[in-house]
Design goal:
The structure is a single chain. By secondary structure, this protein is of the alpha/beta class. It contains eight helices and seven strands; from the N terminus they run βαβαβαβαβααβααβ. A seven-stranded parallel beta sheet has the order 3-2-1-4-5-6-7, with helices on both faces. Helix 1 (17-28) crosses helix 8 and helix 4 (105-133) packs parallel to helix 6. The radius of gyration is 17 Å and the shape is globular. The relative contact order is 0.15. Bound molecules: NADP nicotinamide-adenine-dinucleotide phosphate. NADP nicotinamide-adenine-dinucleotide phosphate (NAP) is lined by residues 12-19, 36-40, 43, 64-66, 91-94, 114-115, 141, 143, 186, 188-189, 191-194.
Amino acid sequence: MQLLIGKTALITGGSRGIGRAIALAMAAEGADIAFTYLSQTAMAEQVATEIRAMGRQCMALQADAADATATNKVVQQVIQAYGHIDILVNNAGITRDGLLVRMSEEQWDSVLNANLKSAFLYSKAVATHMLSRRQGSIVNISSVVGIFGNAGQCNYAASKGAINAFTKSLSKELGARGVRVNGIAPGFILTEMTQELPDELRAQYLKDIALRRLGTPQDVANLAVFLASDKANYITGEIINCSGNIKS
Ligand code: NAP
């Protein structure tokens, strides 16, 4: 049985990596999909074509997730086209790594805006709609770095630690009217974001992962599908690691 029949999902950053895998996995479970991206139009169109070939509807929308006007426009467009949004996945994210002493204000602001402000804007834009329907599932893509910290990633870690606190707080605001909010904290997942890591660092990470393999976008997508589905109806305010049990 498909888990998301009759539902519509809005996913930020669906053109590549984890967001792409989530969009495809949710479509495979019967959901109609809308996803955003920043600049990779060709990749986004390819994902949309794959989803439509599965018999699902798909909208690929270019919109900066940190821009309030664009965010509100996306949500309105999706509600107008599909009638409702059942699932929001706040996935769009970037890294701009560097040690704090050398980190520019631009590095700090761009990461906090893309990773954290975006979740605030999209959650706010869908919250009233979900509350009025007394149902909905918001899934925020965090990171184990938001729990453990990581040298060279003060900006990224701060954005993900804040996403965790945001997730827990929002679950308490929306829970009474049936809207659930959860987070996924992936470990080391093979995507463009991580492909530039030097081989020796990769080998070291492997030693620190109980399952002795790096994660795939599909590993994260499987959990996102579950959290978005009615199978997770009594789960809210949780941050669930999807990391093969990586050591802190
Ligand atoms: P990725 O391969 O670099 O893909 C990022 C996606 O986000 C792309 O679709 C990109 O669009 C979109 N995006 C970036 N900035 C955006 C913005 N301002 N507005 C709208 N879309 C934007 O990244 P990923 O590895 O799949 O990561 C996805 C999420 O998982 C992020 O939140 C990341 O922090 C988290 N995560 C990843 C890992 C990992 O190991 N990969 C681990 C833990 C957590 P374009 O294609 O148009 O650029």
